[in-house]
Amino acid sequence: MAETEDRDWQRIDKWLWCARFMKARADCARLVAEGVLRINTLPTEKPHAKLRVGDVITIAIRGEVKVLEVQSLATRRGPAPEARGLYREIDAAAM
Fold first, then answer.
1. What number is the average pLDDT over the span 5-28?
2. How much is the pTM?
3. What integer best gives the mean pLDDT of the chain?
4. Cα dist from 86 to 1, 2, 21, 63, 65, whole Å
5. How far is residue 91 CA from its own chain's centroid?
C-alpha cells in the first residue's frame, strides 16, 4: 500500500506553515531552503522533505534554536492553540 501525503507523511514546508512558524507557506519553503533545519539530525534544504509523526526537527529561527518532536500531522492551518498541538518542544540544553 502506497504512503499517502497528510496521512502517513507531510511536506516540511506545509507542516511548518500549519504549525504557524511563519505567516506564509512560501516563507516556510524559503526558510527550509536556507538550510537552517534538520530532520532527525540530517540537514535538509528541500521544502518537499517528508515529515512523519515522531520525527525531531531542529530549526534556527528568530535568533534561537528550537528542537521539536512532531506529535501530529496537520489537517489544516488552524488557530494557535491547535497549531501548538502539532509538536512538543524539547529542551535543547538537556540534549
1. 95
2. 0.91
3. 92
4. 26, 24, 12, 22, 18
5. 16
